[in-house]
What we know:
This protein is α+β, with helices and mostly antiparallel strands. It contains three helices and four strands. Strands 2-3-1-4 form a four-stranded antiparallel sheet.
Amino acid sequence: MYVVAARYYTQEGKDEAVATILQQMIPISSAEPGCVLYTVNRSVDDPRKFLLYEQYRDLAGYEAHMATDAFKESILGRVVPMLESRERDFYETIDPA
Length: 97
């Protein structure tokens, strides 16, 4: 599987707006054919810090996710402008032997 771990840090005062948008994205992204898991986490120590953990069947599933109107409008169009930083790491799962 193709895994994305995205760390978002919001601008001061933007954390609630970002949380609301990310919450709305959970069912939308989870319903995509290539998506296996889409979770949004918020730091207990710093409410401006978010971790998105996403699993897709393959890279094509992730690319399809990024091509959706919901991703373009909500994440790129609304969330990203409210962030101080955005880091993404990409992984592949290790299957059991």
